[in-house]
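#help-structures
NK: newbie question, is this the right format to request a structure? protein is Ribosomal RNA-processing protein 8
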Amino acid sequence: MPLFDVPGWSVPAAPVSNSQPHPSKKRKRPLADPTKVQNAEVNLEKVVKQLQASSTAEGALGQKTTTTAPSSRRKKKTPTARATHAGKKVATASRSNATQSTEAPSVKPSPQKVKKAKTKHAAPQDGGDDASKLTALQKGMKQALDGARFRLINETLYKSGSQEAHQMMKEDPQVYQEYHVGFRHQVHSWPTNPVEYYISILSSYPPKTVIADLGCGDAALARALIPKSMTVLSFDLVSDGCYVVEADTCGKLPLPGSEDNDSAKSIGSGHVVDVVVCALSLMGTNWPNCLREAWRILKPDAISGELKIAEVASRFTDVEEFQTLVGSIGFRIKSKDDSNSHFTLFEFKKVSRKGKSDKEWGNILTRGSILKPCEYKRR
C-alpha cells in the first residue's frame, strides 16, 4: 500500500500551480562563447610576448641613459572562469600594449609626493651657510659650545698677563674672533651696555676731541664717534686692519707722552689724548700698567685728562681700595655710579704726581688682586 494512501483521497502525479511564477530581477549572464574564450587566450599570449619584448628593450635603453622614466610592470593574470569578461580585458590590454610598444611606460607621481620630495631635497638658497642648515637642536648645541668656548677664553685672559694673552692671539688669531663673537652674544643679556653709554656721553664733547679706547674690542666707539668729527684711537691685541691698532695696552702704547721719574711732582709732557676709556678692559693680571699708560698719554688740561672706567661690579673685592690704587697712579676720583646691577662706572681726572721707582711700580702691581678675575660656574 502506497505511503499516505487514504481511501477517498487522490494526489495528482505532479502539483499544478495556479499562479504564474514571479520573474527574477537578477540579470542572468549569457552563456560563455567558446570561440571568444579561445580568442582571448590567443590574444593574451600575444600581449604577454609583446610586453616581454618591450621590457627587454626598456632595460637596454635604461643602461644607456639615466634619465629614462621608471617603468611600471604589472603581472598579467591568466584567463579565469569568468570568461564573459575576457573580451573586455583583451581589448583593454591591446590598447595598453599599443601605447607601450611606442614609448616606455612611466609612473607619474602624485603632486603631494612631488611637493614633499622637493621640500626634502631642495638645494640651499644662494648665500646660505652651514648655520642655516642646522636644526633647532643643532643650533642650540652650537650656541652652547660657542658659549663654553667664550667662557674658557675669557677666563684665560683674566688669569694671565697681557704679554701671554698677546702671544696667544698672535699664534691663533681665530681665538680673538671667537672671543668677540661670544662677547657680542653675551651683551644681549645685559641690562645696559657700558660702551653705548660712553657713546652717548662722548657724543656731546667738542669736535676734534681725541679719545683713546684701550681694549676696544670691535671698536664700537670709533665707528660711532669718528663720523662726528672726533678722533678715536682704538687699541687691542689684534688689529682689524681698519679701526683697531694692535698693541698691548698694559705695555707701551704707540703714542707720545712721558712720565718724569723725579721726586718732585710732575704732569709729564708730550701728551695728545683728551680722554681715555677703559670699558671692561682691565683684564690681565698686570692691569694696573694699563692705567699707568693712560696717565702717560693724557693731557693734564682742565678740559682734558679724563679717565673713564667701567667694570663688572662682582669683580671688586673693595671699591674704596680700588679708588685708592688708581689715585696712587696719578688720578683723582670725580664720580662713581654703582646704580647698575652689573657694572660700576668711574670717572677720574689726571693730576700731577711724584716719579716712582721700578720697585714702587712693582708694589702697585701686586695689588692687582683687588679686581677678581671673571669666573664661571662649571656646568
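mod (FA): yep, format's fine, and the C-alpha cells are attached above. Residues 64-128 have pLDDT under 50 and may be disordered.
NK: thank you!
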